[in-house]
């Protein structure tokens, strides 16, 4: 291998991945703190809760107090639980997030790895999340946890289908599975983004993204008022903390993919750059928080009806129309 492709004796590509993962790990930690504070502020304003405004200036110290409480809590394994699977589950929920963040383009050159199959990689590793919920419910030896895990599997199967089909419409139009190429194929103005030509696919994707991250009104796997906390009822301390971090990191992933596929990614009016990407991602996260603190939780039959009776038929119809237009009028001119 040429020395031009080596840094300190390490292959350049490997060096980039290691540095990228370190940066992503730091970002995931900072992002969790920011989103906890943001979630409390949104809840405080939407539901007139005074708590998020009381601890420290602008409620900033409440997040610190929560983090200290979480770290200081006793960690234990419930009686009769499968210890190996019990502790495997939270790590299995958290670690795949780093792989899904690798191909997301934060800017023109601000991407850890430009992968030709980046979209496929994200979809494949996102599926591991539901496996971790299933393990957590099974290994906890708790009936509420089992019910939460069963709900998580049913919900994931139902909503992954329309999500995949909505992503497929974008792939049909751009002819690529590379997220960076999809962003480059879009313009800087909103009417040049794929969300303008595929509004139905965008709405279906975002609805499914809310369900896939188990956020209200689709938080049936946790459902505090019915199942205590569902699949993570028996987890305390940093066991629960890893599930918590994974949820916020997954929100970044699904909103980052939405921004890249439908909202032009780092492209925006006046000047393209990473600031547009972050603005779009956090705007979508704000909408998810808005949903949580506004809409009541749907019943489980309603949850499945939305997916099987509405989202899947609409997604298939949209895909067929898109495929016909692409074939008849050669619409895939983006690449």
TrEMBL record:
<keyword id="KW-0812">Transmembrane</keyword>
<keyword id="KW-0520">NAD</keyword>
<keyword id="KW-0830">Ubiquinone</keyword>
<feature type="transmembrane region" description="Helical">
    <location>
        <begin position="84"/>
        <end position="106"/>
    </location>
</feature>
<dbReference type="GO" id="GO:0048038">
    <property type="term" value="F:quinone binding"/>
</dbReference>
<dbReference type="InterPro" id="IPR018086">
    <property type="entry name" value="NADH_UbQ_OxRdtase_su1_CS"/>
</dbReference>
<comment type="subunit">
    <text>NDH-1 is composed of 14 different subunits. Subunits NuoA, H, J, K, L, M, N constitute the membrane sector of the complex.</text>
</comment>
<dbReference type="GO" id="GO:0016655">
    <property type="term" value="F:oxidoreductase activity, acting on NAD(P)H, quinone or similar compound as acceptor"/>
</dbReference>
<comment type="function">
    <text>NDH-1 shuttles electrons from NADH, via FMN and iron-sulfur (Fe-S) centers, to quinones in the respiratory chain. The immediate electron acceptor for the enzyme in this species is believed to be ubiquinone. Couples the redox reaction to proton translocation (for every two electrons transferred, four hydrogen ions are translocated across the cytoplasmic membrane), and thus conserves the redox energy in a proton gradient. This subunit may bind ubiquinone.</text>
</comment>
<dbReference type="GO" id="GO:0003954">
    <property type="term" value="F:NADH dehydrogenase activity"/>
</dbReference>
<feature type="transmembrane region" description="Helical">
    <location>
        <begin position="307"/>
        <end position="329"/>
    </location>
</feature>
<keyword id="KW-1278">Translocase</keyword>
<dbReference type="Pfam" id="PF00146">
    <property type="entry name" value="NADHdh"/>
</dbReference>
<keyword id="KW-1133">Transmembrane helix</keyword>
<feature type="transmembrane region" description="Helical">
    <location>
        <begin position="12"/>
        <end position="38"/>
    </location>
</feature>
<keyword id="KW-0472">Membrane</keyword>
<feature type="transmembrane region" description="Helical">
    <location>
        <begin position="161"/>
        <end position="181"/>
    </location>
</feature>
<feature type="transmembrane region" description="Helical">
    <location>
        <begin position="274"/>
        <end position="295"/>
    </location>
</feature>
<feature type="transmembrane region" description="Helical">
    <location>
        <begin position="240"/>
        <end position="262"/>
    </location>
</feature>
<keyword id="KW-0874">Quinone</keyword>
<comment type="similarity">
    <text>Belongs to the complex I subunit 1 family.</text>
</comment>
<protein>
    <recommendedName>
        <fullName>NADH-quinone oxidoreductase subunit H</fullName>
        <ecNumber>7.1.1.-</ecNumber>
    </recommendedName>
</protein>
<dbReference type="GO" id="GO:0009060">
    <property type="term" value="P:aerobic respiration"/>
</dbReference>
<dbReference type="InterPro" id="IPR001694">
    <property type="entry name" value="NADH_UbQ_OxRdtase_su1/FPO"/>
</dbReference>
<keyword id="KW-1003">Cell membrane</keyword>
<dbReference type="GO" id="GO:0005886">
    <property type="term" value="C:plasma membrane"/>
</dbReference>
<feature type="transmembrane region" description="Helical">
    <location>
        <begin position="118"/>
        <end position="140"/>
    </location>
</feature>
